[in-house]
Automatic annotation (TrEMBL):
SUPFAM superfamilies: NAD(P)-binding Rossmann-fold domains
Record's keyword annotation contains NADP: yes
Protein keywords: NADP, Oxidoreductase
InterPro entries reported in the protein's UniProt record: Fungal_SecMetab_SDRs, NAD(P)-bd_dom_sf, SDR_fam
Family: Belongs to the short-chain dehydrogenases/reductases (SDR) family.
GO MF annotation, one: oxidoreductase activity
Record-level GO cellular component terms: cytoplasm
Entries under Pfam families matching the protein: adh_short
The protein's name: Oxidoreductase
């Protein structure tokens, strides 16, 4: 991996956990893998991985909580020091299902908060560490794990009606945040992309999904590794194909 420090949110299960596994087991693993969990004491598999790999740092973080993000930033900062942080993978998310008949303000706000607001605030708070990485000449990247369900142009082709006002709209917002961040951070050599992991066999995706977490994450990491400067500000599928906004 060309990244020596990587932060993954929501790393105690699903795609986040598999990202930690594959990064730790790669031929050239990062020096630091910061793996966040809301409840680290219950993150059994993640803790087992961390007990075998000293480069995995398990950090408590609820991405909705600003204090928790400050704690995350100070822990990451104390580990990476003047090398900065190379890669953020904003992975944590929730998927509330609602129809127009059932949708309510509280669930809408929570879904937007976790899926769109939090990735922006995490990126904002970690910006000094990203800048340091870029100034040191390292490839520096923010990956927002989005969803094709958030694609407005693909809406008619993939129709899962009960996700629309909450999950779909939050990922569409995240995609716009990717684009806005990219425009602002490109001049200082920090790249930002959205990637959909595919339909994956996790708690969110269901056991009937197309891909195992292993298949999805193998594709995601290859796509991330191969991203060049020209790819910034774009939306990709897990296997590196262009995804329409
Ligand atoms: P899971 O539901 O399996 O895992 C979600 C992760 O997010 C968990 O670690 C969960 O922690 C964490 N999380 C949720 N809320 C918060 C919070 N407030 N603070 C911190 N962490 C939180 O989902 P997947 O692994 O399937 O999804 C990973 C990403 O991939 C998401 O962004 C999702 O939208 C995206 N995606 C997934 C697809 C799929 O088919 N699986 C398809 C398209 C996109 P906890 O255990 O504490 O709840």
């Amino acid at each position: 991996m060309s990244f020596s420090s990587v932060l993954i949110t929501g790393a105690n299960r699903g795609i986040g956990l598999e990202l930690v596994k594959q990064l730790a087991n790669s031929a050239d693993p990062p020096t630091h893998i910061f793996a966040t969990s809301r409840q680290p004491d219950k993150a059994k598999v993640l803790n087992e991985l961390a007990s075998k790999s000293s480069n995995i740092h398990v950090i408590e973080c609820d991405v909705k909580n600003e204090e928790s993000i400050y704690h995350l930033v100070s822990t990451v900062s104390s580990q990476v020091g003047c090398n900065g942080l190379n890669l953020i993978i904003n992975n944590a998310a929730i998927a509330y299902k609602h129809t127009l008949a059932t949708v309510n303000v509280q669930d809408l706000i929570e879904n937007y908060h976790v899926n769109a607001v939090a990735p922006l605030m995490i990126t904002k708070q970690l910006l000094p560490l990203l800048k340091t990485s870029a100034e040191n000449g390292h490839k520096t990247l923010v990956v927002n794990i989005s969803s094709t369900l958030g694609s407005i142009s693909k809406y008619r082709k993939i129709c899962v009606g009960d996700y629309q006002y909450t999950y779909r709209a939050s990922k569409a917002a995240l995609n716009m945040i990717t684009r806005c961040l990219w425009v602002e951070l490109k001049p200082i050599k920090i790249s930002v992309v959205s990637i959909c992991p595919g339909w994956v066999q996790t708690d969110m995706g269901s056991p009937d999904a197309d891909l195992t977490p292993e298949q999805s994450v193998t594709g995601l990491l290859k796509t991330i590794e191969n991203l060049s400067e020209e790819d910034g500000g774009k939306f990709f599928t897990f296997d590196g194909k262009p995804n329409p906004w």
